[in-house]
């Protein structure tokens, strides 16, 4: 899928629309769903969390984190992407946002979708990020590459999404956000 086709099929609230998430709650977060535009294809960029982290060590995620007091969710997503992988906010074309995503750990995540050109290198915040990798967007658009499963978590049965790719297992909130993106594009 090319960037032009993506823009036509991806109808989101405009980035200029009001940021509805309240940053006063410490359980509010924002992520950037970065799509790297190679001209002839789009790739989804992921981070792999550092293994020593207390929360979600080694898991695959999007760049993101808590929204600071007084900060909008879009600015938080861009700030976190710059802090985690060295992606300058000026290099991202924010297209809009997906619906809020709740997590089993009590967070509410505001996902922002952004297009960017390929970067020469990434400057990883090694305290948080072990690495980055890309997956073709077309992989996730194929329904047979998206799964759901049930797992008992915190005394409840949770429905979780999973999207394996080669040796990577993308699951949880990250996979749920990707699933919503794919449904939006369908």
Automatic annotation (TrEMBL):
The keyword Lipoprotein does not apply. The keyword Mitochondrion does not apply. Transmembrane segments: none annotated. One of its GO terms (molecular function) is coenzyme A diphosphatase activity. GO terms for biological process: nucleoside diphosphate metabolic process. Keywords: Hydrolase, Magnesium, Manganese, Metal-binding. Its cofactor is Mn(2+); Mg(2+). PANTHER family: MITOCHONDRIAL COENZYME A DIPHOSPHATASE NUDT8, NUDIX HYDROLASE. Belongs to the Nudix hydrolase family. PCD1 subfamily. This is NUDIX hydrolase.
């Amino acid at each position: 899928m090319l960037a032009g086709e993506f823009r036509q099929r991806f109808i989101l609230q405009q980035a200029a629309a009001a940021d509805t998430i309240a940053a006063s709650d410490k359980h509010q977060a924002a992520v950037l769903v970065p799509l790297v535009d190679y001209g002839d294809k789009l790739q989804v960029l992921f981070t792999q969390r550092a293994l020593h982290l207390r929360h979600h060590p080694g898991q695959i995620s999007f760049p993101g984190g808590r929204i600071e007091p007084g900060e909008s969710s879009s600015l938080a997503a861009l700030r976190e992407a710059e802090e985690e992988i060295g992606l300058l906010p000026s290099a991202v074309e924010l297209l809009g946002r997906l619906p809020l995503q709740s997590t089993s750990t009590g967070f509410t995540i505001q996902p922002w979708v952004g297009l960017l050109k390929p970067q020469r290198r990434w400057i990883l915040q090694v305290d948080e990020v072990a690495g980055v990798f890309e997956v073709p967007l077309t992989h996730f658009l194929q329904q047979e590459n998206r799964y759901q499963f049930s797992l008992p978590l915190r005394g409840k049965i949770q429905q979780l999404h999973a999207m394996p790719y080669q040796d990577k297992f993308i699951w949880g909130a990250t996979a749920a956000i990707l699933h919503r993106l794919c449904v939006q594009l369908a």
